[in-house]
Amino acid sequence: MAGKLEGKVAVVTGASSGIGEATALALVVEGAKVAVAARRGDRLEELVKRISESGGQAIPIIADVSDETQARDIVLKAKDEYGRVDILVNNAGVMLLGSIDGANTEDWRRMVNTNILGLMYATHAVLPILKAQGGGHIVNISSVAGRTARAGSGVYNATKWGVGAFSESLRQEVYKDKIRVTIIEPGAVATELSNHITDTEAKERIQEWVKSMTPLESEDIARAIVYAVSQPPHVNVNEILIRPTEQER
Q: The pTM is what?
């Protein structure tokens, strides 16, 4: 029996671990060919090997989405390899929490450059391809932080609220081209995301918070993405908010 995404080609950014890795694997199970992109080439090679051994098709693309040329090349390389692109999952992101006062502003630039600009660059690159094909699907990974602002995560909040605004504006621009846009907003997920926080107090605080509950797993988010992209063409799942059962807000 053919998978729900047989014949489709997907691009997944931030695919070297966590939600991106799980999403790539889930899309392959449903029959999609995938181009997996991230900065860590060794992780990508391992992922592609797993996919190939399971009978799937995937290519690794080492790239940093915060660089516009590299973000564009991800999409173009996928198109060159497979002849088309049907799904773009803008998953690459960083969560560098900490107070605004006294912050390391380099953390701010990293979040803006990756979470917002990287997502925009990849989207900009894929739109002409999707329009020429007569449709496609863009999935943007946001966060509960894109709906609820909290002290200690102001700039991260700003980037994720930006993802939401950009996604809805994009949807209104491209719906007539049969391009669907979905925003995914996970709550606490057990991933490596918090490991990169440079503010020691903020890092400890978020890690303790995640440990206080049974968090989501990356596979939970991957299933939501597969649900959204495998709906009939006339159905656009605009937004999916997913929290752990034990998460208050």
A: 0.96
